Fold each of these.
Amino acid sequence: MQEPRSDPLVALRPEQATIPPAHPWNRLPALGAGCALLGALGCAILGAANPKQFFFSWLVSFLFFLSLALGALFFVLIQYASQGGWGIVLRRIGETIFATLPVMAALFLPLLLGLRDLYSWSIPGAAEHDALLHWKEPFLNVPFFLIRAAIYFGCWSVIALFYYRLSRGQDATGDPAVSARLRRLAGPAIIVLALTQTFASFDWIMSLTPHWYSTMFGVYFFAGSFVGFIALLSVVAAATRRAGLLDTVVSAEHLHDLGKFLFAFTAFWAYIAFSQFFLVWYANLPEETIWFKARLEGSWKAVSILLMAGHFGAPFLFLMGRAVKRRESTLVLGGVWLLAMHFVDLYWQVMPTLHADGVRPSALDVAAFLAVGGCFVAAASWLMRRQALVPLRDPRLAESLAFENA
Amino acid sequence: MALLVNQLPTGPHYGILAEFATPADLYHACERVRDAGFTRWDAHTPFPVHGLEGAMGLRRSPLPWIVLVMGLGGAALGFLLQWWVHTVAYPLVISGKPYNAWPAFIPITFEVAILFASLGAVFGMFGLNRLPMHHHPLFQSRVFERVTDDAFFISIESWDPRFDSAATPKLLESLGARNVELLGSGVRS
């Protein structure tokens, strides 16, 4: 019985959802590029003295921003596949974030210089006197590793740019057939994404400990990436309102649904993380326990406990209430906190390989974060300026604008 | 079972039932009944009318708190049960784990928490809705049978402090009601 927020035929005027010429957000690409330059400079100076630390630091930051982009791709694909109406006003933000995937491919390249520093299986002769590595060699060898990486980035870039282009084109034509086509392709694309993302996590994180077995690791990486992206989307959606960009578009109802997603996938992450640990702990087989043993010793144990309490316990209780999800300030607090925890999670997955004796924060961690993050922010914010921040002529935009939680 | 069955207050009348033609009429009538300060009343529709809870001035349900308390209670119960069995009542070494092998207790803790939370949700909802109730005075009205079909109703109970058997029907009629009925208490004498 509410008054309709707008005439469904003219759902949204472009000026309600585009970054105006003099808006401070126009400076974000330059700001990102500045951070990237600063970070790259830091990496060059500090990394020359300690290349091994540089490669590990770069890997953590690369995985962090890559996982956000992959989470965005999954979010948009699942919105199409499920024909979700509520999230259409948030879709374009997701699209500009996953359209950075080709940039992530370029940011992967520095790691190729450090394969032997990162992955002990890639050292020539590593498999010779090691039965397990010998057994895994048909998969874990450098040429196949490179071919797989090319396949992952190829699939991601094709899906990402295809969805971004067509959705952007619909802003001009308003052709409803575009939505139908992207919906039909979303199912197969999700299957491709699930397989490539799973194997990418095997290749880039699991194979740091090449003797380790875990069949659950792909889902674990996915769970973390989706929590990370929803946290980022919550922060960006609230920021667009604060910046006076989407204040007439994104309502407390949309924030509420983002909060529900954040809450649900925090629980999902914990469910998967615990299940992976639980089976390994109970069976107590050496080729499975090595990974957790390294993370339950010394100061890494404190990080493990921090993840239990900070990636699950605290946000689970915090995000339970209704008002917390609907208020900008509290949702942003939850989002920023979970982004930080997602970074800690990846740090905890990667770094014990380098620093088995305990947590050793490094200036290179900061430099690599600035370099990769600067590129990510510059690319995403540059893409946001290219068109409206909302798919203006999606046939179901009016439904999304008028969305209300029951 | 008699203890579990809810009873309405007794009195000569149950209250007033008024029919409205459209959801919009009902919506605006609800706003006026709310503003008139009535507290013991309800609206009845064949389908959910968005925003009606606001027009009726309903407060948010306390059900989430019941579910939270039941869920936490269930988790505590599930964990303590296992802890007590495995460390106090019947300590056994199972696959080389310590007696207090808390990770092994988590799945059952989780399940009991879910079980209690969902029982809290279902029976809390029953309790807050005063169910089960075998019969309701509203069912005396023939017109009310259309509540699941195409009719919209407001009922005001006679034990509402603002209820007046002469003035309240007039108020509802002034809001566009048709078929205003005074219903008996439903108790056969």
Note: Residues 62 and 116 of chain A are 18 Å apart (CA to CA).
Amino acid sequence: MVKATIIAVIRMSVQLYLVGLYLQYIFDLNNGWINAAWVLAMIIIASFTVIRRSGLNRKLFIVPVLFAMTISIVFIDLYFLGAVIKLDYLLDARYFIPITGMLIGNCLSNNIIALSTFYKSLDRDNTQYRFAIANGATRDEALKSFMAEALKKALNPTIATTSVVGLISLPGMMTGQILGGSDPSVAIKYQIMIMITILVSSLITVVLSIIISNKFAFDNMDMPKKGMIK
Amino acid sequence: MISFDKVNIQYGDTKVLEHFSMQIGRGEKVALSGPSGSGKSTIINAIMGFVTASAGTIKVNDTPVNPENIRSIRKNISWLPQELSFNIKECRRLAYLPFEFQANHSHKPTEEEMNKMLSEFLLPEGILQRTTDEISGGQKQRLMLASILLLKRPILLLDEPTSALDALSAKAVLDYINKQPELTMVSSSHDTGWTQQVTKVIDLKKSSL
């Protein structure tokens, strides 16, 4: 335990130090193509992580998950960086990379819970799905209760965190801004905006991931494909 | 109405049905009998398109069961599985579940129609106010059967319908089904009481492998 803790702390320090050096370089360069490539790499790594951690078949699910995460991140970035922060240059490394990174991190954990809950409960309660399909439901109707369960499990932690922010915890971004010399009222405004953005982006990613992956996970008789779950 | 013509179905390397043929006419009440693994449930699943034949033809109302036709075929069928482990706890919700689907909205029964059907199957008054934990497996099976019969579809598929029923309840269910001349029923059953009262028994031990 002591050894594992020491290794974890050393790893974290080295990783963050290297990322710091890299980010400094990226920020100085501030090239839109490189920034976009960096974010795309983060989305690809996140998508593979979602598939691996949710125990799903990589071949079947990587395209829909990658697609869903990319769409939701692009959409949220356009809204947050363009309409809320009103950046002149949307791909400005100083905003684009850390904010997108924060969104991807949250979407990742929500998506793991959502996809894992959805497909594992579909596998477990397959009879309920078949009963619905056999007795008049469309595929979407038959999957409604599975979708509801997945959304509830995936978003409950984020909703709970959102509801107690400021009471039992001060978020890292806000604390960082205050320590960096920002006025608390400005830091709070940023924090409110980012919390809402995280909640919305998580919701969009989770819903899109389930909807898009459904197009790949069923055969032409509306039956779940074999080998969906590893 | 339902036909299997030289159908092969296998799970991996295991052949469940090989060159299997059968004909079921409109209004027949059929029991598929045979030992475990003889393919009774597989036949029912194949009619619904839950499993696919590797050879041969399955037809419902002269329409081949395939991806193009399966949705229209399913509109003529109601199906009750043997395993009823649904994540729904309220009996009322469970009874009205099939009517939540848009295709069945027009068939949604009134409270009176539902209660009449439930009493046909010897279910106690007030069962809709209970939770599924408060009723027996047999009551749940009859509740769901009553519900899907109210869909008034021409074909009824039942997978081991008496697995949780006592003799009296099973008789009540079969009496009701036998009183529906237009209804075609295909069931899988180990129960000799049930197989003795249907109009046709297909013995899979003889017909299949």
Note: The two ends of chain A are 30 Å apart (CA to CA).
